[in-house]
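The passage that follows is intended for readers who have already worked through the single-chain material. We present the inputs for a multi-component assembly, then the predicted structure in tokenized form, and finally a short commentary. You are encouraged to pause after the input and sketch how you expect the pieces to fit together before reading on.
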Amino acid sequence: MQKRNYEVLISDPSLRDGNHAVKHQLSEKQIATYASAANAAGIPIVEVGHGNGLGASSLQVGLARLSDRAILEAARKVLTKSKLGIHVIPGFATIKKDLTMAMELGVDVFRIACHCTEADVTERHIGFVREKGKEVYGVLMMSHMARKEVLVEEASKMQAYGAESAIIMDSAGAYLPDDVSERIEALVEGLSIPVGFHGHNNLGMAVANSIAAVNAGATILDGTARGFGAGAGNTQLEVLIAVLDRLGFKTGIDLYKILDAADIAEDEVIEIIPTISSLSIVSGLSGVFSGFATHVRRVAAEYEVDSRDIFFELGRRKIVAGQEDMIIEVATTLSKERAGERKSH
Amino acid sequence: MSDEFKKLRIAILGSGNIGTDLLVKSIRSPHLECTLFIGRNMGSPGMHKANELGVRISDQSIQAIQDDPDCCDIVFDATSAMAHVKHWPILKNLGKYVIDLTPSNVGEMCVPSINLREKSSAMNVNMITCGGQGSVPIAHAISEVHKDIEYIEVVSNISSRSAGPATRLNLDEYIGTTEAAIQKFSGAKQSKVILTLNPANPCVDMQTTVMVKMSSGNLDKITKSINDMVIRVQEYVPGYHLVVDPVFENERLVVMVKVRGLGDYLPRYAGNLDIINCAAIAAAEHYAKTKL
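Having made your guess, compare it with the prediction:
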């Protein structure tokens, strides 16, 4: 059953997830250019930052070209209608060092994220934002790694801490539409706050999964221009808007202007339009965070091991986002095993 | 003189994962005797464990020590950073030697392999964090070869099962205190600390990666310095070992250590409990030896 005239809130993390695709090298000019176009198209929330969010610029996941402050200031200047959003992972970002600064710079929407089974690490961060009177969402990353009952339990904790919406992310692009439907239905049933979905396109399912999500009762969707994001990219926003429009959902976004914004992103911001590379398919199949792709490719070449073997081994070990250092350990192990095999031949 | 007579009496404040594991370790110590194990809830698993071990228990939190100040010489605080800030003035007034296992950063930081033998009159010793106990020795060993370190980063991953409620609430303090310790013991101008929890089952071992921003250096000397340090840490944390030897990768020096726990309270994956508790016991035994 299609839900005509049903409103869907769109959040656009092109300038955050997209940063993964350019090794966190987005410039102030690129941020201002795309944010202006998104603002003009009427996108309700524009999310910016390092790919892993506030306070994440690091040797572990990549050093950003700009400081968090510079990124936020560049976007804040041009966002007159759209709200400014950020992604915050406790364990990377702290209240004292990072959230306080973001608050001062005028961030409107704080999306506090954690691995899908660890919601209690978000308690103080969500509480802090609520106390300051800003909008705060709870985000469960790598949500394919937990059963729906677990997701409901974790999202309920976030709701209890004060989260005003709960988003599940398909960080590895591992879902098929039925996986999304059953999880979103359970969350909508179990929570009293709006539920959202953030898709990745490793298996070519991002738009279909997003539609499955709204049909199951989700009212918030994330998407990025041309799918700008790690690996195979995210849900392609302009396609999503067109499809939602066709299905009768209301987003308040101007179709021509979002198409223009996507063209601007392609011309001014995106280096390589995301495509579902062979390695991205493996990332989706192995259920490993899409953001690992650039690191895996580099380390595989250095250690002369097959990047696909690294992904499947990371998946077998159930590695979560933020554990990029494990790529080196896995490559070392694979390379030693191979040396051992050679000897025994 | 009997052996019993030579022991210093300890109280453990906090009956969570850290406190309970510490209790099991203290029982093996020839220099320490736990005379009071304190929590807030008689029904908690830690309290049951202490009861089973025949240790006197109380659910009166810090009040238990105020009510019976003569019960102990040393207090281990295994509660939370916020609670420790309140506990310290009380314990100070009572003249207790305090070993703080929370990331409060109130007392003098101690990493046994580096500064245990330095003379100090501090009555409050801070054990930093589990990630700090794992990474600071490595950072220090690197700094002994390369003096001018610009930036060090430490990433630790621990099993979700081993991170109790206080650990989870104290993530920010964990980061701040570990960053301060890295700078203090390595002289690095800047540090960054990241912690991730992994819920995988079977549980993952505690692992810590130290990364230094540098594209080249004397790898032989660094490796030797680190290997010597690992041996020093192994004296009190037997499960501490290198999993990735120092290597230059992508403009950074990378070293990775793993801690297999002793399996005292939680199973062996909980190396994070082991490393901070083994360090705390080493600090307490050192104090006991100077007092007895």
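Commentary: Residues 133 and 299 of chain A are 44 Å apart (CA to CA). The radius of gyration of chain A is 19 Å. How closely did your sketch match?
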